Amino acid sequence: ARPEVTDMMIEKGSVALDGISLTLVALSRESFSVALIPHTLANTTLNFKGPGARVNIETDMLGKWIKKLLASDKATGGLTEAKLREQGFI
Q1: Residue pLDDT tens, the chain, 90 long
Q2: Residues 16, 34: Cα–Cα separation, whole Å
Q3: Alpha carbon distance 31, 5 (integer Å)
């Protein structure tokens, strides 16, 4: 995945692949892994995907919201990444 996608993810967080919500178990700058149980595989379209198949990736809305908030507050000096860390949000 592109870094602008993985930047919106956190380990043990959620990501949706083709609309199927899954748990992130490993994450790097360029890739990620999800937990996929047999029931999910058998009862979703992921059963028809092979290695390297293209999927739609949707990251968690909270991550998008925080990124947007940080970007908009940089000009005003309000909310900062350091402040979010200090308060335990990230």
Answers
A1: 888 889 889 889 999 999 999 999 999 999 999 989 999 999 999 999 988 899 999 998 887 777 777 777 565 667 778 888 888 888
A2: 10
A3: 9
Query: Sign of torsion, CA 68 69 72 73?
Result: negative
Residue 49 corresponds to which tokens in the numbers above?
């995907």
Question: Both tokens of residue 78?
Answer: 């309000």
Structural domains of the chain ordered from first start:
1-59 (2.40.30.20), 60-90 (no CATH)
pTM of the predicted model as reported, rounded to 2 decimal places = 0.70
